[in-house]
Design a protein that fits this description.
It is a single chain. With 342 residues, this protein is an alpha+beta fold. It folds into three domains: 164 residues, FAD/NAD(P)-binding domain; 49 residues, no CATH class; 82 residues, D-Amino Acid Oxidase, Chain A, domain 2 (2-Layer Sandwich), CATH 3.30.9.10. Helix content is 26%, strand content 29%. It is built from eight helices and 19 strands. Strands 1, 2, 9, 10, 11, 12, 18 and 19 form an eight-stranded mixed beta sheet that branches. A five-stranded antiparallel beta sheet has the order 14-15-16-13-17. It is globular and about 65 Å long.
Protein backbone atom coordinates (compact mmCIF):
# COMPACT_ATOMS: atom_id res chain seq x y z
CA UNK A 1 0.00 0.00 0.00
CA UNK A 2 1.39 3.40 -0.98
CA UNK A 3 1.52 6.39 1.34
CA UNK A 4 -0.20 8.84 -1.04
CA UNK A 5 -2.21 8.66 -4.27
CA UNK A 6 -2.58 11.95 -6.12
CA UNK A 7 -5.34 12.14 -8.72
CA UNK A 8 -4.54 14.72 -11.37
CA UNK A 9 -1.28 15.71 -13.08
CA UNK A 10 -1.78 19.42 -13.68
CA UNK A 11 0.26 21.97 -11.77
CA UNK A 12 -1.40 21.20 -8.44
CA UNK A 13 -0.99 17.43 -8.65
CA UNK A 14 2.50 17.55 -10.17
CA UNK A 15 3.84 19.96 -7.56
CA UNK A 16 2.28 17.88 -4.79
CA UNK A 17 3.90 14.72 -6.18
CA UNK A 18 7.26 16.46 -6.60
CA UNK A 19 7.42 17.50 -2.96
CA UNK A 20 5.69 14.55 -1.29
CA UNK A 21 7.74 11.91 -3.16
CA UNK A 22 10.90 13.03 -1.34
CA UNK A 23 9.82 11.14 1.79
CA UNK A 24 6.69 9.18 0.81
CA UNK A 25 5.74 6.45 -1.62
CA UNK A 26 3.55 8.25 -4.16
CA UNK A 27 1.34 7.14 -7.02
CA UNK A 28 0.24 9.80 -9.50
CA UNK A 29 -2.90 9.20 -11.55
CA UNK A 30 -2.23 11.18 -14.71
CA UNK A 31 -5.28 10.16 -16.67
CA UNK A 32 -7.09 13.38 -15.73
CA UNK A 33 -6.06 15.89 -18.42
CA UNK A 34 -4.54 19.09 -16.97
CA UNK A 35 -6.63 21.28 -19.29
CA UNK A 36 -6.04 24.65 -17.65
CA UNK A 37 -2.38 23.97 -16.89
CA UNK A 38 -1.62 22.82 -20.40
CA UNK A 39 -2.75 26.07 -22.06
CA UNK A 40 -1.55 28.56 -19.44
CA UNK A 41 0.53 31.46 -20.73
CA UNK A 42 2.88 31.10 -17.76
CA UNK A 43 2.80 34.53 -16.10
CA UNK A 44 4.44 34.36 -12.69
CA UNK A 45 3.11 37.46 -10.95
CA UNK A 46 3.24 37.85 -7.14
CA UNK A 47 1.71 41.34 -7.50
CA UNK A 48 -1.40 40.31 -9.41
CA UNK A 49 -4.62 42.29 -9.36
CA UNK A 50 -5.61 45.80 -10.35
CA UNK A 51 -4.37 47.11 -7.01
CA UNK A 52 -1.32 44.85 -6.95
CA UNK A 53 -2.63 43.25 -3.80
CA UNK A 54 -1.39 39.81 -4.79
CA UNK A 55 -2.65 37.16 -2.36
CA UNK A 56 -1.70 36.04 1.17
CA UNK A 57 1.93 34.86 1.33
CA UNK A 58 2.50 35.77 -2.33
CA UNK A 59 6.22 36.41 -1.86
CA UNK A 60 6.63 33.21 0.11
CA UNK A 61 4.87 31.44 -2.76
CA UNK A 62 7.32 33.06 -5.20
CA UNK A 63 10.21 31.62 -3.18
CA UNK A 64 8.46 28.24 -3.10
CA UNK A 65 8.11 28.42 -6.89
CA UNK A 66 11.84 28.91 -7.28
CA UNK A 67 12.53 26.00 -4.93
CA UNK A 68 10.11 23.91 -6.99
CA UNK A 69 12.01 24.77 -10.18
CA UNK A 70 15.25 23.69 -8.52
CA UNK A 71 13.75 20.44 -7.25
CA UNK A 72 12.39 19.66 -10.72
CA UNK A 73 15.72 20.50 -12.42
CA UNK A 74 13.76 23.09 -14.39
CA UNK A 75 15.47 26.41 -13.68
CA UNK A 76 15.86 27.11 -17.40
CA UNK A 77 12.06 26.92 -17.85
CA UNK A 78 11.64 30.26 -16.06
CA UNK A 79 12.65 33.72 -17.25
CA UNK A 80 12.62 36.21 -14.32
CA UNK A 81 12.42 39.14 -16.75
CA UNK A 82 9.85 41.16 -14.81
CA UNK A 83 6.36 42.15 -15.90
CA UNK A 84 5.47 45.51 -17.45
CA UNK A 85 2.19 46.82 -16.06
CA UNK A 86 0.81 49.94 -17.78
CA UNK A 87 -1.50 51.95 -15.57
CA UNK A 88 -4.99 52.02 -17.07
CA UNK A 89 -6.01 55.36 -15.60
CA UNK A 90 -4.76 58.18 -13.39
CA UNK A 91 -6.04 56.57 -10.21
CA UNK A 92 -4.18 53.35 -10.91
CA UNK A 93 -1.07 55.32 -11.91
CA UNK A 94 -1.07 57.10 -8.53
CA UNK A 95 -1.45 53.77 -6.73
CA UNK A 96 1.36 52.12 -8.71
CA UNK A 97 3.63 55.09 -8.05
CA UNK A 98 3.03 54.97 -4.29
CA UNK A 99 3.61 51.20 -4.18
CA UNK A 100 6.86 51.61 -6.12
CA UNK A 101 8.09 54.18 -3.58
CA UNK A 102 7.39 51.87 -0.64
CA UNK A 103 8.54 48.64 -2.36
CA UNK A 104 11.56 49.61 -4.50
CA UNK A 105 12.95 46.06 -4.43
CA UNK A 106 9.79 44.64 -5.98
CA UNK A 107 8.87 47.21 -8.64
CA UNK A 108 9.99 50.39 -10.35
CA UNK A 109 7.89 53.22 -11.76
CA UNK A 110 8.35 54.58 -15.29
CA UNK A 111 6.76 57.74 -16.68
CA UNK A 112 5.04 57.62 -20.06
CA UNK A 113 7.96 59.27 -21.88
CA UNK A 114 10.33 56.67 -20.44
CA UNK A 115 8.05 53.90 -21.73
CA UNK A 116 8.00 55.54 -25.19
CA UNK A 117 11.79 55.53 -25.26
CA UNK A 118 12.38 52.07 -23.81
CA UNK A 119 9.45 50.17 -25.35
CA UNK A 120 8.22 52.00 -28.49
CA UNK A 121 5.61 49.35 -29.26
CA UNK A 122 3.83 49.94 -25.93
CA UNK A 123 1.20 52.59 -25.29
CA UNK A 124 1.17 53.71 -21.65
CA UNK A 125 -0.11 57.32 -21.42
CA UNK A 126 -0.43 57.13 -17.63
CA UNK A 127 2.96 55.50 -17.05
CA UNK A 128 3.77 51.95 -16.04
CA UNK A 129 5.60 49.87 -13.50
CA UNK A 130 7.92 46.90 -13.92
CA UNK A 131 7.30 44.35 -11.18
CA UNK A 132 9.31 41.38 -10.04
CA UNK A 133 8.14 38.18 -11.74
CA UNK A 134 8.39 36.72 -15.20
CA UNK A 135 7.32 33.91 -17.51
CA UNK A 136 7.47 30.13 -17.09
CA UNK A 137 7.11 27.69 -19.96
CA UNK A 138 4.34 25.69 -18.31
CA UNK A 139 4.17 22.93 -20.92
CA UNK A 140 7.90 22.23 -20.70
CA UNK A 141 7.80 22.58 -16.93
CA UNK A 142 5.10 19.93 -16.63
CA UNK A 143 7.10 17.64 -18.92
CA UNK A 144 10.22 18.19 -16.84
CA UNK A 145 8.32 17.51 -13.62
CA UNK A 146 7.10 14.24 -15.13
CA UNK A 147 10.69 13.31 -16.06
CA UNK A 148 11.96 14.14 -12.58
CA UNK A 149 9.16 12.14 -10.95
CA UNK A 150 9.65 8.99 -13.03
CA UNK A 151 12.38 7.35 -10.86
CA UNK A 152 10.63 8.06 -7.56
CA UNK A 153 6.90 8.11 -8.28
CA UNK A 154 4.63 5.47 -9.76
CA UNK A 155 2.70 7.11 -12.60
CA UNK A 156 -0.50 5.42 -13.78
CA UNK A 157 -2.22 6.76 -16.88
CA UNK A 158 -5.74 6.23 -15.66
CA UNK A 159 -8.58 8.26 -14.19
CA UNK A 160 -9.98 8.00 -10.72
CA UNK A 161 -13.70 7.19 -10.77
CA UNK A 162 -14.53 6.81 -7.07
CA UNK A 163 -13.03 6.19 -3.64
CA UNK A 164 -13.96 4.93 -0.19
CA UNK A 165 -12.29 6.12 3.02
CA UNK A 166 -12.25 3.21 5.49
CA UNK A 167 -10.63 5.19 8.31
CA UNK A 168 -7.27 3.42 8.24
CA UNK A 169 -6.87 3.41 4.46
CA UNK A 170 -8.57 4.53 1.25
CA UNK A 171 -9.70 2.35 -1.62
CA UNK A 172 -9.32 4.17 -4.95
CA UNK A 173 -11.29 2.94 -7.95
CA UNK A 174 -9.94 3.47 -11.47
CA UNK A 175 -11.59 3.58 -14.87
CA UNK A 176 -9.97 0.24 -15.71
CA UNK A 177 -12.29 -1.26 -13.06
CA UNK A 178 -9.29 -2.00 -10.84
CA UNK A 179 -8.60 -0.52 -7.42
CA UNK A 180 -5.65 0.63 -5.33
CA UNK A 181 -5.08 1.10 -1.61
CA UNK A 182 -3.47 4.16 -0.06
CA UNK A 183 -3.05 5.85 3.29
CA UNK A 184 -3.92 9.29 1.84
CA UNK A 185 -5.75 10.38 -1.30
CA UNK A 186 -5.31 13.88 -2.74
CA UNK A 187 -7.86 15.00 -5.31
CA UNK A 188 -6.22 17.50 -7.66
CA UNK A 189 -8.55 16.75 -10.54
CA UNK A 190 -9.25 20.28 -11.75
CA UNK A 191 -12.41 20.67 -13.82
CA UNK A 192 -12.92 16.91 -13.82
CA UNK A 193 -14.45 17.33 -10.36
CA UNK A 194 -17.74 17.91 -12.20
CA UNK A 195 -17.87 14.19 -13.04
CA UNK A 196 -17.26 13.01 -9.47
CA UNK A 197 -20.54 12.99 -7.54
CA UNK A 198 -18.86 13.18 -4.14
CA UNK A 199 -17.40 16.59 -5.01
CA UNK A 200 -20.55 18.30 -6.24
CA UNK A 201 -21.40 19.64 -2.78
CA UNK A 202 -18.22 21.76 -2.82
CA UNK A 203 -20.00 24.24 -5.10
CA UNK A 204 -16.89 25.08 -7.09
CA UNK A 205 -17.09 27.29 -10.16
CA UNK A 206 -15.58 26.75 -13.59
CA UNK A 207 -14.42 29.59 -15.82
CA UNK A 208 -13.32 29.21 -19.41
CA UNK A 209 -10.17 31.10 -20.35
CA UNK A 210 -9.06 31.62 -23.93
CA UNK A 211 -5.68 32.59 -25.39
CA UNK A 212 -4.74 33.86 -28.84
CA UNK A 213 -1.36 33.22 -30.51
CA UNK A 214 -0.23 35.86 -32.99
CA UNK A 215 2.83 36.26 -35.16
CA UNK A 216 4.46 39.68 -35.05
CA UNK A 217 7.86 41.29 -34.69
CA UNK A 218 8.16 43.33 -31.51
CA UNK A 219 10.81 44.93 -29.33
CA UNK A 220 9.08 43.48 -26.29
CA UNK A 221 11.57 41.71 -23.98
CA UNK A 222 9.09 41.06 -21.18
CA UNK A 223 5.37 40.34 -20.74
CA UNK A 224 2.82 43.15 -20.54
CA UNK A 225 -0.17 42.89 -18.21
CA UNK A 226 -2.98 45.42 -17.81
CA UNK A 227 -5.81 45.39 -20.32
CA UNK A 228 -5.43 41.68 -20.90
CA UNK A 229 -1.85 40.50 -21.25
CA UNK A 230 0.77 39.74 -23.88
CA UNK A 231 3.55 37.23 -23.33
CA UNK A 232 6.47 37.09 -25.80
CA UNK A 233 7.34 33.58 -26.98
CA UNK A 234 9.99 33.65 -29.68
CA UNK A 235 8.62 35.35 -32.77
CA UNK A 236 5.05 35.32 -31.50
CA UNK A 237 2.94 36.74 -28.70
CA UNK A 238 0.51 34.85 -26.49
CA UNK A 239 -2.44 37.11 -25.77
CA UNK A 240 -5.04 36.64 -23.08
CA UNK A 241 -7.47 36.17 -21.66
CA UNK A 242 -11.21 35.70 -21.32
CA UNK A 243 -13.17 34.92 -18.15
CA UNK A 244 -16.23 33.11 -19.47
CA UNK A 245 -18.53 32.02 -16.67
CA UNK A 246 -20.94 30.34 -19.07
CA UNK A 247 -19.88 28.48 -22.17
CA UNK A 248 -21.08 25.73 -24.48
CA UNK A 249 -17.84 23.81 -24.96
CA UNK A 250 -14.06 24.02 -24.60
CA UNK A 251 -13.40 25.20 -28.14
CA UNK A 252 -11.97 28.70 -28.72
CA UNK A 253 -14.48 31.13 -30.21
CA UNK A 254 -14.24 34.04 -32.62
CA UNK A 255 -15.97 36.17 -30.02
CA UNK A 256 -13.21 35.37 -27.53
CA UNK A 257 -10.49 36.14 -30.06
CA UNK A 258 -12.09 39.48 -30.90
CA UNK A 259 -12.37 40.41 -27.21
CA UNK A 260 -8.73 39.57 -26.48
CA UNK A 261 -7.44 41.50 -29.49
CA UNK A 262 -9.52 44.53 -28.51
CA UNK A 263 -8.08 44.46 -24.98
CA UNK A 264 -4.44 43.93 -25.82
CA UNK A 265 -4.27 46.47 -28.65
CA UNK A 266 -4.94 49.14 -26.03
CA UNK A 267 -1.43 48.38 -24.75
CA UNK A 268 0.18 47.21 -27.99
CA UNK A 269 -1.52 48.91 -30.96
CA UNK A 270 0.29 46.78 -33.56
CA UNK A 271 -1.64 43.74 -32.28
CA UNK A 272 -4.52 44.98 -34.48
CA UNK A 273 -2.61 44.00 -37.63
CA UNK A 274 -0.91 40.86 -36.27
CA UNK A 275 -1.37 37.51 -37.99
CA UNK A 276 -3.45 35.12 -35.91
CA UNK A 277 -1.74 31.73 -35.61
CA UNK A 278 -4.37 30.03 -33.50
CA UNK A 279 -6.22 30.00 -30.23
CA UNK A 280 -6.59 27.69 -27.25
CA UNK A 281 -8.82 27.43 -24.22
CA UNK A 282 -8.84 25.79 -20.81
CA UNK A 283 -11.02 25.62 -17.73
CA UNK A 284 -10.01 27.26 -14.46
CA UNK A 285 -11.60 26.02 -11.24
CA UNK A 286 -12.35 28.66 -8.64
CA UNK A 287 -13.84 28.82 -5.17
CA UNK A 288 -16.86 31.16 -5.11
CA UNK A 289 -16.47 34.45 -3.22
CA UNK A 290 -12.69 34.06 -3.01
CA UNK A 291 -9.77 33.96 -5.43
CA UNK A 292 -7.89 31.56 -3.19
CA UNK A 293 -7.49 27.79 -3.48
CA UNK A 294 -9.22 25.10 -1.48
CA UNK A 295 -6.93 22.68 0.38
CA UNK A 296 -8.47 20.63 3.17
CA UNK A 297 -9.71 17.27 4.37
CA UNK A 298 -12.94 15.94 2.90
CA UNK A 299 -12.78 12.90 5.15
CA UNK A 300 -10.08 11.61 7.48
CA UNK A 301 -7.75 10.44 4.70
CA UNK A 302 -9.12 12.18 1.59
CA UNK A 303 -8.02 15.70 0.69
CA UNK A 304 -9.09 18.22 -1.92
CA UNK A 305 -6.55 20.43 -3.73
CA UNK A 306 -8.24 22.76 -6.17
CA UNK A 307 -9.13 26.35 -7.04
CA UNK A 308 -5.68 27.50 -8.17
CA UNK A 309 -7.29 29.74 -10.79
CA UNK A 310 -5.01 32.05 -12.76
CA UNK A 311 -2.25 31.96 -10.10
CA UNK A 312 -1.65 28.26 -10.66
CA UNK A 313 2.12 27.94 -10.68
CA UNK A 314 2.67 30.10 -7.60
CA UNK A 315 -0.12 28.54 -5.56
CA UNK A 316 0.74 25.00 -6.67
CA UNK A 317 4.36 25.48 -5.59
CA UNK A 318 3.36 26.95 -2.23
CA UNK A 319 0.85 24.19 -1.52
CA UNK A 320 3.21 21.46 -2.70
CA UNK A 321 6.04 22.60 -0.45
CA UNK A 322 3.76 22.72 2.63
CA UNK A 323 1.51 19.78 1.91
CA UNK A 324 3.37 17.15 3.91
CA UNK A 325 3.12 19.28 7.04
CA UNK A 326 -0.56 19.93 6.39
CA UNK A 327 -1.30 16.23 5.85
CA UNK A 328 0.29 15.40 9.21
CA UNK A 329 -1.31 18.34 11.02
CA UNK A 330 -4.54 19.33 9.24
CA UNK A 331 -5.17 22.28 11.56
CA UNK A 332 -1.97 23.89 10.22
CA UNK A 333 -3.64 24.54 6.85
CA UNK A 334 -4.11 28.32 6.51
CA UNK A 335 -7.63 29.34 7.46
CA UNK A 336 -8.16 31.09 4.11
CA UNK A 337 -7.61 27.76 2.27
CA UNK A 338 -9.78 25.62 4.47
CA UNK A 339 -13.09 24.10 3.45
CA UNK A 340 -15.14 25.70 6.18
CA UNK A 341 -14.36 29.20 4.90
CA UNK A 342 -15.61 28.55 1.36
Amino acid sequence: MVDVIIAGSGLGGSCAALWLSESNSVTLLSGTAPAASAVAAGLVNPLAGQRMGGFPNAWTAYEDFQHTLHRANALEMYNPCGILRPALNETQASLFFVISQTNPDSLIWLESDQIDEMYPSITAPFGATITKGGVADISKLLDQMATTLMPRCNVIHQNLTDWEDHGSEVTVMLDSETSLQTRKLILAVGAEYQFLSKLKNLHLHCTKGQLVHVSMSTDLPLPVSGAGYAVPAGNKLILGTTYEHSYKDLEPTNEGITKILALTKRMIPSVASAKILGASAGIRVGVPETRLPMVDQLTRNVWILTGLGSKGILLASHIGRNLETWLKTPLSVPDEFRLRNN
